[in-house]
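Quick one: structure for this chain?
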Amino acid sequence: MVLVAYKRRYNMENFDRTKGLGGSDANTIWHNNNLAHLWKVKTKRDIEVDLSNVFRVQLGVHTESFHIDWLAKTTFKDKMVSVPSKTREIKLGDIPLYAHLDATVDGQILECKHSNARATVEQKARYYAPQLHHYMHIFNQDWCYLSVILGNDDPVVVRVDWNPEFWAKLKSKMIRFWTFVMADKMPPESSTTPLDKEALSDVLVDNMKDYVDYKNPEYISLDDRMYQYQGAVSGFEETKKKMKLLVPKDARRCEFPNSNYVITRNKKGTLVVKQKGE
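Got it. Here's what it folds into:
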């Protein structure tokens, strides 16, 4: 059930985002996604980009309430789903941090996203790891929920755990960025390193499942057909693509007892097909 109706909610138009760092700022800083513009916003040299005419952004905004409603009557029907009415603010040293949560489930953070059908939940969990860790730090929680709508499929909900090593690196970057804000000095644009990208792959999604007895009849049929197509490249590759489309979106591994092939999801979220015994 939903405890609090949507007001959308704590009147964000009146919140001064220049006075600290929010969850989306944490993502920008980690991914080095136009730090110069973020710095200009925080130092009041520029305003935030107007996203009101960006369709994919507005699609996420306008489906958020429905997304939460849907989870409240399906995945979380036996839990209390609440939409916070206030922004929470704390200090990280001299840096004001703030959080606007989408919702909570029995008090646990729930973040909702809408992405394209080609993405995977694991990819989204890695991409939004900075934002999620920012929120977990502010609310002192060691895990949170992430729900993602991929295309027009049902939402997939995963649990993302607190990663202290990842947070230490993110915190260091946030402190460094804020030092430039306070010094009124433009930060360099080259803070992302291979080590950072590697750290993102270590953010674990706990409830990806191993489907070791997957009984989808079409999947089983394609497994047999692909085995018969060995040597015929076009037929083999086309069948492999069809098999991948049938893998559950929360699957880490997919096979059945007498299958010829096993499909696994690597840390980048890519599905890999291998013949058993390889």
